[in-house]
Amino acid sequence: MAGKRRAEMMEETRTKLIRSARRAFSEKGYAAASMDELTAEAGLTRGALYHNFGDKRGLLQAVVDQIDGEMAARAQAVGARAETEWDGLLAEGVAYIEMALEPEVQRIVLLDGPAFLGDPSQWPSQNGCLQVTLQKLEGLIAQGTVRPVDAEAAARLLNGAALNAALWVAASDQPQEVLAKAVEAFRVLAGGLLAAPG
Hints:
This protein has 198 residues and is mostly helical.
């Protein structure tokens, strides 16, 4: 019983720190966010941050993982509403790119994340997205909708295209214009995977 309560308290502490960091990173950016301020806002100490995340960078990783997971779930929900599996796969990629316009996603995941955590394609959350795309492409190849190419290669290229398009939108001075170009190019590139009609 005591072990269960301790685990619940630890999870509650992690949740408070992530919520506070998410707000601070979104409003001020990772570099300007003060560990003392964000831990005080959560009603905790720096010690709690170090114990749960190792350091501020570990906390950023947890925040990025959470937001990236939410992005993936939202994109999959958009894809699930499409008429066909192929249209759903395209809709997921487009939805991911469009999220680059959202201030929290833009600042934390697409600007500060790569700057402080390195290559986004190596993040654990991106690997989860890759596996979902891979499974969908394997199904589309089996149906004959997609050409018989290596499914992993195709999944990596599709996910990479969506991620790089989102990074481009986030870093742009004219994100709406860039978004339109990026989405059009993403659709054209992805369309090259389709099997020839008939």
